[in-house]
């Protein structure tokens, strides 16, 4: 990935988080009843987590660290090498599993749970995005 591709990923990430933030303002009933809202949220969670992973991979590569074999390992290595706070590792692992559910287990996605994640974990993803953007500029 080039530096311009990295910047593009960061822009995609911020755009996905902005869209998630916009959708988080809906009441639970509206979210559950309107597939355009829930589909927007599902897609943008996937985009955000993918972008975080891509940015993390790039940072690790530029830092000459071990190449991660899994999405979870990307987050583990980012925490181990101080690019992200080590206290975030478990939450990042959960986000990785959530992304896998969205992509591979889409038939089992429970929109009630997705709404709860939207309401409780969005700020966490925003914090991770800010930390990674800052680290990517420094590296």
Could you explain the architecture of this structure?
With 139 residues, the chain is mostly helical. It has a single domain, classed as bsu32300-like (Four Helix Bundle (Hemerythrin (Met), subunit A), Up-down Bundle), CATH 1.20.120. It is built from six helices and no strands. The chain has helices at 3-23, 28-33, 35-62, 71-80, 89-104, 111-138. The two termini are 14 Å apart. 29% of the residues are buried. The model has no long low-confidence stretch (mean pLDDT 91).
Describe what is shown at a glance.
The protein is mostly helical. The protein has 6 helices and no strands.
How confident is the prediction overall: mean pLDDT? Answer: 91
Structural class assignment: mainly alpha
List the total number of helices: 6
- Low-pLDDT parts are none
List descriptors.
single chain; about 140 residues; mainly alpha; Four Helix Bundle (Hemerythrin (Met), subunit A)
Write the layout of secondary structure elements.
Blueprint: H1 3-23, H2 28-33, H3 35-62, H4 71-80, H5 89-104, H6 111-138
Helix pairs in contact: 1-3, 1-6, 3-4, 3-5, 3-6, 4-5
């Amino acid at each position: 990935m080039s530096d311009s591709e990295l910047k593009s990923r960061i822009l995609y990430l911020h755009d996905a988080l902005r869209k998630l933030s916009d959708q988080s303002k809906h009441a639970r009933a509206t979210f559950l009843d309107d597939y355009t809202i829930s589909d927007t949220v599902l897609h943008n969670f996937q985009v955000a987590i993918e972008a975080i992973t891509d940015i993390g991979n790039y940072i690790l590569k530029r830092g000459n660290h071990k190449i991660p074999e899994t999405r979870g390992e990307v987050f583990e290595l980012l925490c181990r090498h101080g690019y992200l706070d080590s206290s975030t590792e478990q939450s990042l692992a959960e986000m990785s599993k959530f992304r896998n559910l969205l992509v591979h287990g889409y038939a089992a996605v429970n929109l009630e749970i997705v709404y709860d994640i939207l309401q409780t974990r969005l700020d966490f993803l925003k914090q991770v995005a800010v930390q990674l953007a800052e680290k990517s500029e420094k590296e």
